[in-house]
Design a protein that fits this description.
The complex is a heterodimer.
Chain A (H helix, E strand, L loop, with lengths): L37 H15 L7 E5 L3 H4 L10 E3 L5 H11 L4 E7 H5 L3 H10 L3 E7 L2 E2 L5 E2 L22 H8 L3 E6 L3 H13 L3 E7 L15 H6 L1 E10 L14 E5 L5 E6 L9 H13 L3 E8 L6 H5 L17 H10 L3
Parallel strand pairs in A: 1-2, 1-3, 3-4, 4-8, 7-8, 9-12
Antiparallel strand pairs in A: 5-6, 7-12, 9-11, 10-11
Chain B lengths: L7 E2 L1 E9 L4 H14 L4 E6 L8 E9 L12 E4 L5 H7 L5 E5 L14 E5 L1 H8 L3 H20 L3 H11 L4 H21 L6 E2 L9 E5 H12 L3 E4 L6 H14 L11 E4 L3 H13 L4 E5 L1 H17 L3 E7 L16 H5 L9 E3 L4 H18 L2 E7 H5 L1 E5 L17 H6 L29 E3 L13 H21 L4 E3 L6 E6 L3 H13 L5 E5 L1 E2 L3 H9 L2 E6 L5 H9 L7 E5 L8 H18 L8
The chains are: A alpha/beta, B alpha/beta.
Amino acid sequence: MTFIAKPKVTHPSLPKNALGLTRRDYEGALSTLCAGCGHDSITAAIVEASWELSLEPQNVVKLSGIGCSSKTTAYFVSGGHGFNSVHGRMPSIAMGANAANRDLHYIGVSGDGDTLSIGLGQFCHAIRRNVNMLYIIENNGVYGLTKGQFSASADIGTRAKKGETNFQPPIDPVLLAITLGATFAARSFSGDKQQLVPLIQAGMKHKGFALIDVLSPCVTFNDHEGSTKSYAYTREHYEPAVHADFVPLEREITADYAEGEALPVVMHDGSRIVLRKLDAAYDPTNRITAWAQIQERMKAGEYLTGLLYVESSQSEFHDINGTPDAPLNSLAYEALSPGAKGLEKVLARYR
Amino acid sequence: MPASTATRINDFAIKIATVNGTGSASANSLLMKSIFRSGIPVMGKNYFPSNIQGLPTWYEIRVTRDGYVARSGRVEIMVAMNAETYARDVKEVTAGGYLIYDSTWPRPALLKREDITVLGVPLARLCNENFNGVRTRILMKNICYAGVLAALLDLDLERIRELLAETYAKKPQLVDSNMKAIQLGYDYARQNFACPLPLHVEKLDQTAGHIMIDGNTAAALGCVFAGATVAAWYPITPSTSLMDAYKAFCDRMRIDPATGRKNFAFIQAEDELAAIGMVIGAMWNGARAFTATSGPGISLMNEFLGLAYYSEVPAVIFDIQRVGPSTGMPTRTQQCDIMECAYASHGDTRHVCLYPANPEECFYMALQAFDLAERLQTPVLVLSDLDIGMNDWMCRDLQWDDGYRPDRGKMLRQEQVEKLEKFYRYIDKDGDGIGYRTLPGMHPKAAYFTRGSGHTQYGTYTEDSTEYQIVLDRLLKKWDTAKKLVPRAVIDATAASAIGIVSLGSCDGAIHEALDVLQTHGVGVDYMRVRSFPFTEDVERFLAAHQLLFVVEQNRDAQFRALLTLETAVDKAKLRSLLHYNGLPISSAFIVEGVLAEIRPRLRAQPQDAAHG
């Protein structure tokens, strides 16, 4: 960790977003993670994405479970409420919070242990409910806080720092999410901010559950020769398939992309994600072929990255539940209580 | 035939033995409700299997002019419809009582007891001759015994028709077929037996201003009136009907008339861990939220309960207790989660618990639970049980004051936050151990970080011993505040006795009856019903003021007694446990016998002490 606190005074020349806020206004407490940790880059990407989107800081809700990744919710958007809950159970906290107030931006940050082992059930069911939230997995293949055990995302043949080899097949969150009917599944790398920032923006704007699995090397326990989650290995085997650019509502799509190459996906608020296929054969809107291609390339030792599957037509939790547009926590008591007259009617059935 | 019991009007118990899934539930509720509508207090208890179809099930109806709400421990009339359980059903009839059975087939074994009257009615034959279809014949056979009882007990057939018309308002053809079955049984009994029996009902006027309702329905209604908008749960007997009732009430009363949208979220979770997580998330975010579960669910919720306690997030949990340990007997009743709920989760945790005694109290305590949870910023567990939750109880009409507004506790409003220099979540500004809370979305100044890891009173992460202890000690102060806010015990000291009964929850009905019976034995006993944990001051006083205390509860290990010894200054030597834990609701007879067994030798040894009685 770094012990040098940045001064709170901001320089007047710092660029401001539509709300007149600088990037500094989207930062949080000092990180206590190891120097060089991939997670800190993801934190920086979240700060950048939130600033660019001009999110009201108080409307950002940060949720996490337990682990290195889960600590990071304290390191961005200090103007938003945070909830560091229990191991693997963040999705249920997010579901409840979202049920109470559908108007806020919910960002869940989890790790591969938190999501794919202890929290696998809750992760799957959050996808099933299509809770409107961004769910980031900071995936490094190891348990950091308990000093380097394999996680469920460790690849077959990968070697731990102490030398042992993993023989169990990994659980891949992107493949799993696509199988479960997720409406937004992306993969990125903590070292690729250019790819990650627009993905985070698109995920925040996506109506429903948006998963971004971010390969985020652990410099202390999983960055050695023989590891398949090291910086070096990831850079070598990392294959962008679809680039996603987020285009806010107020900005016109410019002619940056050649006809036929760009595929705009309209979000519920009218903003757009423009997908650029880097791999001509890859179709991010076809669940079946997307799944098959990710799987095939994975067998060949490559991680396809980018917005790997997206579908904007699905209903999120509140649409299915039929809740009102106004958040449930804002409804006046008068609208909720049947009153003495209502009670009398009810009692008549029990006489 | 033996001489029948002496004439007993409006004071006897009927037990009906059937097979589950054969429509006997409709027949039984028809009988019970027709008695209730005739103005006579009545109690109904359902002993059903954890099964869909084909296993033995019993229903006990107690007609009680004195308005008792517990089992008497006697069975004056047995309707034996299940060949599989004939032997034990015959045995259970109180001497001088009656046994009604289906005499379509000869059952010589049933005629062996000479101290009871056996009445055979060829129910299957009557129904086979008058109805078509196997399923219909089975269902109608059960309705038919209701007709037999109507004749024997002198029930009003018009009342029965009226009830059928209400039940089948949408299928009027069923009113006629059911009424036909009733009439078959009724006529057969009138033609073959001297009707009514010496045991029968006579109209009274004692049920006006009362309803027949189960505790789960009443608790669900309380949640609606409390303004709860988020309900998350995982199906588990015997709590499921609470959630079903909440949804049914909301589907009728919480639909926005203009938009048709639902002013509630009803979420079936993937397990109890997720259910409590959703409740915590929703209440943290300012909605009133609750879950309902039973013992196994509480076991799973332990970790989250510790988080909510330590991070001070309100939550409301209904534990409809059933027989444990482990899966236990899911459709039988016990009070076996007292200890588990009081101290749920690892580390130093203590939780506010409420102990309703009947459905009426389930309604009011549901409201109190939300107010207390938000006032104290902590989980509140309402410990009902299967007996209260799933049986229909006669209760006074529920009352509602339209002036009620939810107590949201120390929740800052947006304009208050704006005026603050800085906001700290866990500072004890008022000296009552309770900090102020804010909601997401209010203002950047309102933001704080909620965590189950060590934190300072300013809400920041800490591993500093002193900072950690400041927060942990404040939670104790909050516990003291809770003692002043939770419902006090209900104390009946009219006997001014040195002997007292101490109990909680659903034992209440049986205890009230037992006190009356003991009085007839010349034994006066005081009674305290504890309604909450932490224990209020009056609990300590009652314990100190009595020389002999019977602690009545429905579990094997005397959990309530243990909690009393841990959390009060009571002298253990004064406490005698009366433990009922076979899964059936406690009866008054059990308590009377238990008290007398202890007291009689004392009375003989020290006759001067009898003055206390």
